[in-house]
Amino acid sequence: MISGAWRRWRSLRPSTRRAVWATVGIANARWPRRYNRVLQTPSFFWGWLDTELAFPILAVHSWRAWRSRNLTDAQGVVAASLSVVSAVGLASFIAEGVATDDQFAAALAPHLSAEDIAARPPSVRAGAWFPLLYGGRGRRVRTRDVVFTPEGSTHRRRLDVYEPTAPWDGVTRRPAIVQIHGGGWVIGDKREQGIPLLNHLAANGWVGFNVNYSLAPRSRAPQQLIDCKLALAYIKAHADEYGIDPDFVCVTGGSAGGHLAALMALTANDPAFQPGFTEVDTSVAAAVPFYGVYDLVDDEHLMIKGFRQMLIEPLLFDTKFTEDEISYRAYSPYSRIHADAPPMMVVHGSRDTLVPVEVARRFAAELARVSTSPVVYTELYGANHAFELFPSPRTVRTIEYVERFLDGVHRGVIK
Description:
The chain contains 15 helices and eight strands. It is an alpha/beta fold. It has two domains: 96 residues; 311 residues, 3-Layer(aba) Sandwich (Rossmann fold). An eight-stranded mixed beta sheet has the order 1-2-4-3-5-6-7-8, with helices on both faces. α2 packs across α3, α2 runs parallel beside α5 and α5 packs parallel to α15. The mean pLDDT is 90.
Protein backbone atom coordinates (compact mmCIF):
# COMPACT_ATOMS: atom_id res chain seq x y z
CA MET A 1 0.00 0.00 0.00
CA ILE A 2 2.75 2.41 0.96
CA SER A 3 4.86 1.44 -2.05
CA GLY A 4 1.85 2.00 -4.32
CA ALA A 5 1.21 5.45 -2.92
CA TRP A 6 4.89 6.28 -3.34
CA ARG A 7 4.82 5.20 -6.99
CA ARG A 8 1.74 7.34 -7.64
CA TRP A 9 3.44 10.29 -5.95
CA ARG A 10 6.58 9.84 -8.03
CA SER A 11 4.49 9.65 -11.19
CA LEU A 12 3.27 13.21 -10.69
CA ARG A 13 5.01 16.04 -12.49
CA PRO A 14 7.59 17.97 -10.39
CA SER A 15 5.44 21.10 -10.64
CA THR A 16 2.47 19.22 -9.18
CA ARG A 17 4.53 17.81 -6.32
CA ARG A 18 5.84 21.29 -5.53
CA ALA A 19 2.31 22.68 -5.51
CA VAL A 20 1.15 19.95 -3.13
CA TRP A 21 4.07 20.51 -0.76
CA ALA A 22 3.53 24.26 -0.82
CA THR A 23 -0.12 23.85 0.11
CA VAL A 24 0.70 21.41 2.91
CA GLY A 25 3.28 23.88 4.16
CA ILE A 26 0.71 26.68 4.30
CA ALA A 27 -1.68 24.46 6.24
CA ASN A 28 1.10 23.51 8.67
CA ALA A 29 2.08 27.14 9.25
CA ARG A 30 -1.52 28.10 9.97
CA TRP A 31 -2.30 25.07 12.16
CA PRO A 32 1.06 23.94 13.63
CA ARG A 33 1.41 20.60 15.42
CA ARG A 34 2.39 22.06 18.78
CA TYR A 35 1.38 19.13 21.02
CA ASN A 36 2.68 16.22 18.94
CA ARG A 37 6.08 14.98 20.15
CA VAL A 38 7.07 13.58 16.76
CA LEU A 39 5.82 16.42 14.57
CA GLN A 40 6.35 19.46 16.83
CA THR A 41 9.93 20.29 15.82
CA PRO A 42 9.58 19.74 12.03
CA SER A 43 6.24 21.56 12.15
CA PHE A 44 7.95 24.52 13.80
CA PHE A 45 10.82 24.79 11.33
CA TRP A 46 8.58 24.46 8.28
CA GLY A 47 5.98 26.90 9.57
CA TRP A 48 8.62 29.33 10.83
CA LEU A 49 10.19 29.67 7.37
CA ASP A 50 6.86 29.94 5.53
CA THR A 51 5.57 32.60 7.93
CA GLU A 52 8.56 34.89 8.31
CA LEU A 53 9.99 34.51 4.80
CA ALA A 54 6.59 34.63 3.14
CA PHE A 55 7.46 37.46 0.74
CA PRO A 56 10.58 35.92 -0.90
CA ILE A 57 8.96 32.47 -0.86
CA LEU A 58 5.88 33.89 -2.57
CA ALA A 59 8.04 35.55 -5.22
CA VAL A 60 9.96 32.34 -6.00
CA HIS A 61 6.84 30.18 -5.78
CA SER A 62 4.88 32.42 -8.18
CA TRP A 63 7.72 32.55 -10.69
CA ARG A 64 8.14 28.77 -10.74
CA ALA A 65 4.38 28.17 -10.91
CA TRP A 66 4.08 30.55 -13.88
CA ARG A 67 6.99 28.94 -15.72
CA SER A 68 5.63 25.40 -15.27
CA ARG A 69 1.94 26.20 -15.85
CA ASN A 70 0.04 23.59 -17.82
CA LEU A 71 -3.75 23.69 -18.02
CA THR A 72 -4.13 21.03 -20.71
CA ASP A 73 -4.99 18.19 -18.34
CA ALA A 74 -6.49 17.54 -14.91
CA GLN A 75 -3.12 17.31 -13.18
CA GLY A 76 -2.13 20.70 -14.52
CA VAL A 77 -5.39 22.28 -13.37
CA VAL A 78 -4.98 20.79 -9.89
CA ALA A 79 -1.38 22.05 -9.68
CA ALA A 80 -2.43 25.53 -10.78
CA SER A 81 -5.29 25.60 -8.28
CA LEU A 82 -3.02 24.53 -5.42
CA SER A 83 -0.49 27.17 -6.45
CA VAL A 84 -3.16 29.84 -6.16
CA VAL A 85 -4.21 28.52 -2.73
CA SER A 86 -0.63 28.56 -1.42
CA ALA A 87 -0.04 32.04 -2.89
CA VAL A 88 -3.12 33.34 -1.08
CA GLY A 89 -1.87 31.71 2.12
CA LEU A 90 1.57 33.32 1.82
CA ALA A 91 -0.03 36.69 1.09
CA SER A 92 -2.13 36.32 4.25
CA PHE A 93 1.05 35.73 6.28
CA ILE A 94 2.51 38.95 4.88
CA ALA A 95 -0.69 40.82 5.79
CA GLU A 96 -0.52 39.42 9.33
CA GLY A 97 3.04 40.69 9.65
CA VAL A 98 2.04 44.17 8.53
CA ALA A 99 -0.82 44.13 11.07
CA THR A 100 1.83 44.04 13.81
CA ASP A 101 1.55 47.84 13.74
CA ASP A 102 -1.97 47.72 15.14
CA GLN A 103 -1.15 45.11 17.78
CA PHE A 104 1.80 46.99 19.23
CA ALA A 105 0.05 50.35 19.03
CA ALA A 106 -2.89 48.95 21.02
CA ALA A 107 -0.59 47.43 23.65
CA LEU A 108 1.39 50.64 24.10
CA ALA A 109 -1.59 53.03 23.99
CA PRO A 110 -2.14 52.99 27.79
CA HIS A 111 1.52 53.93 28.36
CA LEU A 112 2.53 56.26 25.52
CA SER A 113 0.84 59.11 23.72
CA ALA A 114 -0.27 58.68 20.12
CA GLU A 115 2.52 61.07 19.12
CA ASP A 116 5.16 58.98 20.89
CA ILE A 117 3.89 55.79 19.30
CA ALA A 118 3.82 57.30 15.83
CA ALA A 119 7.31 58.80 16.25
CA ARG A 120 9.08 55.44 16.24
CA PRO A 121 12.33 55.71 14.26
CA PRO A 122 12.29 53.78 10.97
CA SER A 123 14.40 50.70 10.43
CA VAL A 124 15.94 49.73 7.11
CA ARG A 125 12.66 49.22 5.29
CA ALA A 126 14.13 47.08 2.52
CA GLY A 127 14.96 44.52 5.18
CA ALA A 128 11.26 44.08 5.87
CA TRP A 129 10.91 42.43 2.50
CA PHE A 130 14.38 41.18 1.57
CA PRO A 131 16.36 40.09 4.65
CA LEU A 132 19.70 40.13 2.85
CA LEU A 133 19.29 43.88 2.30
CA TYR A 134 19.04 44.56 6.02
CA GLY A 135 22.26 46.50 6.49
CA GLY A 136 22.24 47.56 10.12
CA ARG A 137 22.52 51.23 9.21
CA GLY A 138 24.15 53.49 11.77
CA ARG A 139 25.90 50.91 13.90
CA ARG A 140 29.15 49.03 14.10
CA VAL A 141 30.40 46.08 16.06
CA ARG A 142 32.97 47.79 18.18
CA THR A 143 34.51 44.65 19.59
CA ARG A 144 33.88 40.95 19.20
CA ASP A 145 34.53 38.26 21.77
CA VAL A 146 35.16 40.40 24.82
CA VAL A 147 35.82 38.09 27.78
CA PHE A 148 33.56 39.09 30.66
CA THR A 149 34.15 36.27 33.12
CA PRO A 150 36.62 37.05 35.93
CA GLU A 151 40.27 36.06 35.68
CA GLY A 152 40.82 32.56 36.95
CA SER A 153 37.33 31.36 36.01
CA THR A 154 37.06 27.72 35.00
CA HIS A 155 35.27 28.85 31.83
CA ARG A 156 35.67 31.91 29.62
CA ARG A 157 32.51 33.55 28.31
CA ARG A 158 32.41 36.31 25.73
CA LEU A 159 30.18 39.09 24.47
CA ASP A 160 29.99 41.31 21.38
CA VAL A 161 29.49 45.06 21.61
CA TYR A 162 27.25 47.05 19.26
CA GLU A 163 27.72 50.82 19.28
CA PRO A 164 26.45 53.77 17.22
CA THR A 165 28.79 55.02 14.52
CA ALA A 166 28.76 58.46 16.13
CA PRO A 167 31.52 58.52 18.76
CA TRP A 168 30.57 59.05 22.39
CA ASP A 169 30.75 62.72 23.34
CA GLY A 170 32.30 61.85 26.70
CA VAL A 171 29.49 63.50 28.65
CA THR A 172 26.00 62.17 27.85
CA ARG A 173 25.60 58.64 29.14
CA ARG A 174 23.99 56.27 26.65
CA PRO A 175 21.36 53.63 27.46
CA ALA A 176 22.44 50.01 27.14
CA ILE A 177 20.81 46.65 26.53
CA VAL A 178 21.91 43.05 27.09
CA GLN A 179 20.76 40.45 24.55
CA ILE A 180 20.58 36.78 25.64
CA HIS A 181 20.28 34.12 22.95
CA GLY A 182 17.90 31.18 22.95
CA GLY A 183 18.34 27.55 21.96
CA GLY A 184 16.73 25.48 24.69
CA TRP A 185 19.70 26.22 26.98
CA VAL A 186 21.71 23.62 25.04
CA ILE A 187 22.59 25.37 21.75
CA GLY A 188 22.81 28.92 20.39
CA ASP A 189 25.37 31.68 20.06
CA LYS A 190 25.58 35.47 20.29
CA ARG A 191 26.35 35.69 16.57
CA GLU A 192 22.98 34.23 15.60
CA GLN A 193 20.23 36.02 17.49
CA GLY A 194 19.05 39.49 18.43
CA ILE A 195 21.01 41.12 15.61
CA PRO A 196 18.14 43.13 14.01
CA LEU A 197 17.15 44.61 17.38
CA LEU A 198 20.73 45.43 18.39
CA ASN A 199 21.39 47.05 15.01
CA HIS A 200 18.26 49.15 15.31
CA LEU A 201 18.92 50.26 18.88
CA ALA A 202 22.54 51.12 18.09
CA ALA A 203 21.32 53.21 15.17
CA ASN A 204 19.27 55.16 17.72
CA GLY A 205 21.97 55.83 20.29
CA TRP A 206 21.99 52.63 22.35
CA VAL A 207 24.94 50.39 23.16
CA GLY A 208 24.13 46.70 22.86
CA PHE A 209 25.86 43.68 24.37
CA ASN A 210 25.18 40.24 22.89
CA VAL A 211 26.31 37.63 25.41
CA ASN A 212 27.12 33.94 25.46
CA TYR A 213 26.55 31.74 28.50
CA SER A 214 27.40 28.21 29.61
CA LEU A 215 25.26 25.65 27.82
CA ALA A 216 23.51 22.61 29.25
CA PRO A 217 23.93 19.76 29.88
CA ARG A 218 27.62 20.37 30.43
CA SER A 219 26.73 23.26 32.73
CA ARG A 220 23.67 22.83 34.90
CA ALA A 221 21.32 25.43 36.32
CA PRO A 222 21.80 28.05 37.61
CA GLN A 223 25.11 28.56 35.75
CA GLN A 224 23.32 30.09 32.74
CA LEU A 225 21.82 32.84 34.88
CA ILE A 226 25.05 33.34 36.81
CA ASP A 227 26.90 33.92 33.52
CA CYS A 228 24.33 36.49 32.41
CA LYS A 229 24.67 38.31 35.71
CA LEU A 230 28.47 38.22 35.36
CA ALA A 231 28.05 39.87 31.95
CA LEU A 232 25.86 42.56 33.50
CA ALA A 233 28.41 43.10 36.28
CA TYR A 234 31.18 43.48 33.67
CA ILE A 235 29.13 45.93 31.62
CA LYS A 236 28.35 48.13 34.62
CA ALA A 237 31.97 48.03 35.77
CA HIS A 238 33.09 49.21 32.32
CA ALA A 239 30.41 51.86 31.90
CA ASP A 240 33.02 54.61 31.45
CA GLU A 241 34.76 52.67 28.69
CA TYR A 242 31.53 52.21 26.72
CA GLY A 243 29.97 55.55 27.60
CA ILE A 244 26.86 53.98 29.08
CA ASP A 245 24.69 54.76 32.07
CA PRO A 246 25.27 51.91 34.56
CA ASP A 247 21.89 52.70 36.10
CA PHE A 248 20.08 52.20 32.82
CA VAL A 249 20.89 48.78 31.43
CA CYS A 250 17.97 46.78 30.02
CA VAL A 251 17.77 43.11 29.07
CA THR A 252 16.13 41.13 26.28
CA GLY A 253 16.22 37.64 24.81
CA GLY A 254 14.13 34.98 23.14
CA SER A 255 12.96 31.49 24.16
CA ALA A 256 15.57 30.20 26.66
CA GLY A 257 16.99 33.72 26.42
CA GLY A 258 13.52 35.07 27.22
CA HIS A 259 13.47 32.83 30.30
CA LEU A 260 16.88 34.18 31.37
CA ALA A 261 15.97 37.79 30.56
CA ALA A 262 12.85 37.52 32.72
CA LEU A 263 14.89 35.96 35.51
CA MET A 264 17.45 38.77 35.25
CA ALA A 265 14.63 41.25 35.80
CA LEU A 266 13.03 39.32 38.66
CA THR A 267 16.10 38.14 40.64
CA ALA A 268 18.13 41.35 40.93
CA ASN A 269 20.80 41.10 43.63
CA ASP A 270 19.76 37.59 44.67
CA PRO A 271 22.93 36.20 46.33
CA ALA A 272 21.97 32.66 45.29
CA PHE A 273 22.76 33.61 41.69
CA GLN A 274 25.77 35.83 42.39
CA PRO A 275 28.45 33.60 43.92
CA GLY A 276 31.55 35.65 44.55
CA PHE A 277 29.98 38.94 43.46
CA THR A 278 27.08 39.44 45.82
CA GLU A 279 28.01 43.09 46.34
CA VAL A 280 27.39 43.94 42.65
CA ASP A 281 24.12 45.62 41.69
CA THR A 282 22.50 43.35 39.09
CA SER A 283 19.24 45.24 38.73
CA VAL A 284 18.03 46.14 35.24
CA ALA A 285 15.97 49.15 34.15
CA ALA A 286 13.55 47.18 31.94
CA ALA A 287 13.13 43.80 30.29
CA VAL A 288 11.73 42.63 26.95
CA PRO A 289 11.47 38.83 26.90
CA PHE A 290 10.39 37.25 23.61
CA TYR A 291 8.46 33.93 23.54
CA GLY A 292 10.04 32.88 26.83
CA VAL A 293 9.66 29.74 28.90
CA TYR A 294 8.36 31.25 32.12
CA ASP A 295 7.49 28.19 34.21
CA LEU A 296 9.86 25.22 34.27
CA VAL A 297 7.53 23.40 36.67
CA ASP A 298 4.59 23.67 34.24
CA ASP A 299 1.92 23.30 36.93
CA GLU A 300 -0.82 24.12 34.43
CA HIS A 301 0.44 21.61 31.83
CA LEU A 302 0.62 24.24 29.11
CA MET A 303 3.77 22.85 27.48
CA ILE A 304 3.96 19.66 25.43
CA LYS A 305 3.48 16.49 27.48
CA GLY A 306 6.75 15.41 29.07
CA PHE A 307 8.36 18.88 28.77
CA ARG A 308 9.79 18.83 32.27
CA GLN A 309 10.64 15.13 32.37
CA MET A 310 12.23 14.95 28.90
CA LEU A 311 14.00 18.34 28.67
CA ILE A 312 14.28 20.20 31.95
CA GLU A 313 15.15 17.36 34.32
CA PRO A 314 17.78 15.50 32.26
CA LEU A 315 19.44 18.53 30.64
CA LEU A 316 19.14 21.57 32.87
CA PHE A 317 19.17 20.21 36.42
CA ASP A 318 21.19 17.63 38.29
CA THR A 319 18.16 16.45 40.23
CA LYS A 320 14.57 15.51 39.49
CA PHE A 321 11.74 17.87 40.31
CA THR A 322 10.40 15.59 43.02
CA GLU A 323 13.79 15.71 44.74
CA ASP A 324 14.39 19.47 44.55
CA GLU A 325 11.19 21.39 43.85
CA ILE A 326 12.58 24.55 45.47
CA SER A 327 15.38 24.89 42.89
CA TYR A 328 12.99 24.40 39.97
CA ARG A 329 10.66 27.10 41.23
CA ALA A 330 13.55 29.44 42.07
CA TYR A 331 14.65 29.17 38.41
CA SER A 332 11.14 29.82 37.04
CA PRO A 333 10.23 33.47 36.30
CA TYR A 334 6.58 32.80 37.09
CA SER A 335 7.50 31.84 40.66
CA ARG A 336 9.74 34.90 41.07
CA ILE A 337 7.16 37.58 40.25
CA HIS A 338 7.13 40.38 42.83
CA ALA A 339 5.85 43.93 43.24
CA ASP A 340 9.22 45.60 42.61
CA ALA A 341 9.77 44.09 39.17
CA PRO A 342 11.03 46.60 36.57
CA PRO A 343 8.91 47.65 33.57
CA MET A 344 8.51 44.73 31.23
CA MET A 345 7.27 44.16 27.68
CA VAL A 346 6.32 40.53 27.06
CA VAL A 347 6.14 39.57 23.36
CA HIS A 348 4.74 36.27 22.10
CA GLY A 349 3.29 34.85 18.89
CA SER A 350 -0.21 33.41 18.73
CA ARG A 351 1.00 30.43 16.64
CA ASP A 352 4.11 29.64 18.65
CA THR A 353 4.73 25.94 18.07
CA LEU A 354 7.38 25.34 20.75
CA VAL A 355 6.15 27.52 23.63
CA PRO A 356 2.35 27.85 23.48
CA VAL A 357 1.04 31.39 23.79
CA GLU A 358 -0.93 30.42 26.89
CA VAL A 359 2.40 30.33 28.77
CA ALA A 360 3.00 34.02 28.07
CA ARG A 361 -0.60 34.99 28.77
CA ARG A 362 -0.43 33.41 32.22
CA PHE A 363 2.93 34.99 33.04
CA ALA A 364 1.97 38.47 31.82
CA ALA A 365 -1.38 38.40 33.62
CA GLU A 366 0.20 37.46 36.96
CA LEU A 367 3.02 39.98 36.46
CA ALA A 368 0.50 42.75 35.74
CA ARG A 369 -1.49 41.78 38.81
CA VAL A 370 1.48 41.85 41.20
CA SER A 371 4.01 44.34 39.80
CA THR A 372 3.79 48.05 40.51
CA SER A 373 5.65 48.78 37.27
CA PRO A 374 4.05 48.84 33.81
CA VAL A 375 3.57 45.52 32.04
CA VAL A 376 3.01 45.59 28.28
CA TYR A 377 1.83 42.29 26.84
CA THR A 378 1.88 42.07 23.06
CA GLU A 379 0.46 38.99 21.39
CA LEU A 380 1.36 38.97 17.72
CA TYR A 381 -1.28 37.25 15.64
CA GLY A 382 0.19 34.62 13.32
CA ALA A 383 3.74 34.79 14.70
CA ASN A 384 5.65 31.59 15.40
CA HIS A 385 8.53 30.94 17.76
CA ALA A 386 11.79 32.79 16.99
CA PHE A 387 9.94 35.02 14.54
CA GLU A 388 12.30 37.99 14.84
CA LEU A 389 15.44 36.17 13.69
CA PHE A 390 14.58 37.23 10.15
CA PRO A 391 14.09 40.93 9.28
CA SER A 392 10.56 40.19 8.04
CA PRO A 393 7.70 42.72 7.92
CA ARG A 394 6.74 41.61 11.43
CA THR A 395 10.31 41.80 12.75
CA VAL A 396 11.06 45.28 11.44
CA ARG A 397 7.88 46.61 13.02
CA THR A 398 8.53 44.75 16.25
CA ILE A 399 11.98 46.23 16.80
CA GLU A 400 10.65 49.73 16.15
CA TYR A 401 7.95 49.35 18.80
CA VAL A 402 10.33 47.70 21.26
CA GLU A 403 12.52 50.77 20.81
CA ARG A 404 9.47 52.96 21.55
CA PHE A 405 8.84 51.04 24.78
CA LEU A 406 12.46 51.20 25.90
CA ASP A 407 12.74 54.87 24.94
CA GLY A 408 9.59 55.57 26.98
CA VAL A 409 11.15 53.92 30.02
CA HIS A 410 14.41 55.80 29.43
CA ARG A 411 12.63 59.17 29.23
CA GLY A 412 10.59 58.38 32.33
CA VAL A 413 7.28 58.38 30.46
CA ILE A 414 6.79 54.70 31.23
CA LYS A 415 7.54 54.10 34.90
